[in-house]
């Protein structure tokens, strides 16, 4: 997947230097809790003992899904294009939260069913207007998947070239919780029905119909699939673009902030193809969409926030930005014991056991019940 984009691992020895810098700050070791683990991850992603979290940019990808013809969403497909207009006018949650978080919002039409009029501030992929109905045929051709991956990677590379240090991802697409469930199941091997949820608000009856439609789609391409094959089978264009953006951001040496269920499915596909992108990923929040927890557990990731969001649009990623900034400020601005002339205590009494510290600072620890041991994303190769 995007094999021309090389991903350079964090420099040898950087992890040890950052851990030591964190431990020498004027605080009892470990007392800033998960902000310490976040600072380590940010420093490794940005290749620095003194990383900056700004500028931060949200890349927001919209796309439509032919699968909605099977009645898998509570909302009409037209809402995707209508929300694009809302994003352009500045009136969506993503706009409000981006302003509140001090992040630039860049909007991408990865494949809205449209027609969407060109507008300043809307970057259009021009690949196709929505995916095919995955219950009947493959959602995308291999060439369309490649083009969408490239579109997303180019968006991340452009943001990095413009100076972005932290690249948050978000999406909008009626029906994309179905594509994410199908993709997530095919790539992870998690049973599909465990990943099917209400999405943007299906009731119990609708959920049964959604499950039946997704089982029909999965039956066309049964079993585990390679990430690109899964993206072709199930879509969508905005999901492939986000997978490309993960790889683009990692290749540019930037931190990428993963949002909710749909964004995590995209990251899962990207990381299955390019595991070396893992140290660049920060998982922002746990969506109320029930399948999200399973995808996070499969990845061995514990997100920063749990605020019962289930909107998408990058809202959870934007809410995590102040924590990421605080982690950067800890590394950049806090004095060391020596600098501040503060006496170090009987440190061995305070320092948690080495294993506990390592677990806390790597991958933020795997959540309880994680199905299999996962690679330490901060591990040096
Ligand atoms: O990101 C999430 O965790 C999330 C969970 C549920 C729904 N959404 C949003 O809701 C839409 C997909 O829901 P649906 O029911 O149309 O598949 C899409 O626009 C997503 O941004 C997003
Ligand atoms: C109104 C609306 C806004 C959204 N934003 C992301 N997904 C969405 C789904 C709906 C239905």
UniProtKB/TrEMBL annotation:
Stretches of Pro residues bias are at 370-381
What GO MF annotations does this protein's record show? glycosyltransferase activity
Q: In which pathway does it act?
A: Nucleoside biosynthesis; alpha-ribazole biosynthesis; alpha-ribazole from 5,6-dimethylbenzimidazole: step 1/2
Top-level EC class, please? Answer: transferase
Keyword line? Cobalamin biosynthesis, Glycosyltransferase, Transferase
Span-the-membrane segments of this chain are none
Residue ranges for the region (Disordered) are 342-381
Low complexity bias: start-end ranges: 352-369
Its recorded reaction(s) are:
5,6-dimethylbenzimidazole + nicotinate beta-D-ribonucleotide = alpha-ribazole 5'-phosphate + nicotinate + H(+)
Family, according to the entry, reads as follows: Belongs to the CobT family.
Main role? Catalyzes the synthesis of alpha-ribazole-5'-phosphate from nicotinate mononucleotide (NAMN) and 5,6-dimethylbenzimidazole (DMB).
Protein's name in the database: Nicotinate-nucleotide--dimethylbenzimidazole phosphoribosyltransferase
């Amino acid at each position: 997947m995007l094999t021309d984009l090389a991903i350079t691992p964090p420099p040898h020895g950087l992890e040890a230097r950052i851990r030591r810098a964190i431990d020498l700050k004027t605080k009892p070791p470990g007392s800033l809790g998960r902000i310490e683990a976040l600072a380590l991850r940010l420093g490794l992603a940005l290749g620095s003992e003194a990383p900056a979290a700004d500028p931060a940019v949200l890349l927001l990808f919209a796309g439509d899904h032919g699968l909605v013809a099977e009645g898998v969403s509570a909302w009409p497909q037209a809402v995707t294009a209508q929300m694009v207009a809302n994003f352009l006018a500045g009136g969506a949650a993503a706009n409000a939260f981006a302003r509140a978080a001090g992040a630039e919002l860049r909007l991408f039409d990865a494949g809205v069913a449209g027609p969407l009029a060109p507008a300043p501030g809307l970057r259009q992929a021009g690949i196709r207007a929505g995916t095919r109905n995955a219950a009947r045929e493959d959602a995308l051709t291999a060439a369309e998947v490649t083009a969408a991956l490239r579109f997303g990677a180019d968006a991340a590379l452009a943001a990095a070239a413009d100076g972005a240090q932290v690249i948050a991802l978000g999406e909008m697409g009626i029906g994309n919780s179905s594509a994410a469930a199908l993709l997530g199941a095919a790539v992870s091997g998690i049973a599909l029905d465990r990943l099917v949820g209400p999405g943007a608000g299906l009731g119990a009856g609708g959920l049964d119909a959604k499950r039946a439609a997704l089982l029909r789609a999965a039956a066309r391409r049964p079993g585990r699939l390679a990430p690109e094959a899964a993206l072709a089978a199930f879509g969508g264009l905005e999901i492939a673009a986000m997978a490309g953006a993960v790889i683009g951001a990692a290749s540019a040496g930037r931190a990428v902030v993963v949002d909710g269920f749909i964004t995590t499915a995209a990251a899962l596909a990207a990381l299955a193809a390019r595991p070396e992108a893992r140290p660049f990923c920060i998982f922002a929040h746990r969506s109320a969409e029930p399948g999200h927890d399973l995808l996070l557990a499969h990845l061995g990731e514990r997100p920063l926030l749990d605020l019962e969001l289930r909107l998408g649009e990058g809202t959870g990623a934007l809410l995590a930005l102040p924590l990421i900034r605080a982690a950067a400020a800890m590394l950049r601005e806090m004095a060391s014991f020596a600098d501040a002339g503060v006496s170090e205590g009987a440190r061995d009494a305070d320092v948690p056991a080495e294993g506990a510290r390592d677990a806390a600072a790597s991958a933020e620890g795997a959540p309880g019940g994680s199905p299999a041991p996962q690679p330490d994303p901060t591990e040096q190769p």
